[in-house]
TrEMBL record:
The keyword Iron does not apply. The keyword Phosphoprotein does not apply. The chain crosses the membrane at residues 12-30, 101-119, 131-158, 178-197, 234-261, 281-300. This is Peptide/nickel transport system permease protein. GO terms for biological process: transmembrane transport. It comes from the Bacteria. Belongs to the binding-protein-dependent transport system permease family. Its main location: membrane. Residues 95-300 form the ABC transmembrane type-1 domain. It is a multi-pass membrane protein. It comes from Tamaricihabitans halophyticus. Keywords: Cell membrane, Membrane, Transmembrane, Transmembrane helix, Transport. It is found in: Cell membrane.
């Protein structure tokens, strides 16, 4: 396990370095001048030149590149070119808002999807199996922006159970925050629940037909015990793997969900930064997202090895 962790930690550092280099280069390929975006279209060339000098944008690219990594190693993510605040003032709050959506959606998806998949597998080719499978196909097929818009229209306008409200932090008003949180979480949960349910069903069907499960039945063990202690435990390996993939998918889906529901998360922060060519914010958000994805994949690998000791020798 130590060798595995050391190897994965080294790989993670390489991945972060590659991501940081790519985002540094791509951010500077965005059309437009950040200095002009700060001052507006009516600014003179002299004013733009002064601001570019203050922002260090007139320095050579290689000097900006090494300065970027030097600041990053010191824990300095830079100052927003537009707001004038340090990136660390806004990023933790926005990251917390996005992770609140993503983690709640994933927790609900697993809490609902695993029992549904288990039920469908134990009732294979029966009515309940067809219902779960059909619902899963519908959930996977329905795009996030369509489902989010429908939920907002139906539950917010036609049948105003959850009317649109301004975002309020949990500390400011817990009840209002939970009401505002519900629709975006449900939007993200739908597709992930469908994926988890289908994976659970497939994994359970495979393990239920395995030799050791038939042996457990032959020993006279109760069916519930066989399903829970033998089949479901073995099926958890692919479920954990697909859940880690779903977490990264949910992070990507927040771009649309945050836009639809006006949720102030990392995705909306990134989109605004790209629009005004705010290099420090773009770099910080992408690196923070990459770090989350890498850590999630590492945790998933460790969990799989803990569930299956044979993976230690892989």
């Amino acid at each position: 396990m130590r060798t595995f962790l050391a190897r994965r930690a080294g790989l993670a550092l390489i991945q972060l370095f590659v991501v940081g280099t790519i985002v540094f280069l791509l951010a500077r390929l965005i059309p437009g001048d950040p200095a002009r975006a700060v001052l507006g279209d009516n600014a003179t060339e002299d004013q733009v030149a002064q601001v570019r000098e203050l922002m260090n944008l007139d320095a050579p690219q290689w000097e900006q590149y090494f300065g970027f990594w030097g600041n990053l190693l010191r824990g300095d993510l830079g100052v927003s070119l537009i707001s004038g605040r340090t990136v660390l003032e806004d990023l933790p709050v926005r990251m917390g808002n996005s992770l609140e959506l993503v983690l709640l959606a994933l927790a609900l998806a697993m809490a609902i999807g695993i029992p549904l998949g288990r039920l469908a597998a134990t009732k294979a080719n029966k009515a309940i199996d067809h219902i779960v499978t059909g619902g899963a196909i519908l959930g996977i097929s329905l795009p996030v922006f369509v489902l989010g818009t429908l939920l907002l229209l139906v539950l917010g306008v036609w049948w105003p159970v959850l009317p649109p409200e301004r975002f309020v932090s949990f500390a400011e008003d817990p009840l209002t925050h939970l009401r505002v949180l519900l629709l975006p979480v449900l939007t993200l949960t739908a597709a992930s629940t469908a994926v988890v349910a289908r994976m659970t069903r497939s994994a359970m069907l495979e393990t239920l037909s395995a030799d050791y499960v038939r042996t457990a039945r032959a020993k006279g063990l109760r069916e519930k015990h066989v399903v829970r202690r033998h089949a479901l435990r073995a099926a958890m390996l692919p479920i954990v793997s697909v859940s880690s993939v779903e977490l990264t998918t949910l992070i990507g889906s927040t771009v649309l969900v945050e836009s639809i529901f006006g949720w102030p998360g990392m995705s909306s922060l990134l989109m605004n930064a790209v629009t005004v060519r705010d290099y420090p914010v773009i770099q910080a958000v992408v690196l923070a997202t990459a770090t989350i994805v890498i850590v999630v994949n590492l945790i998933a690998d460790i969990t799989v090895r803990a569930l299956d000791p044979r993976a230690e020798s892989v």
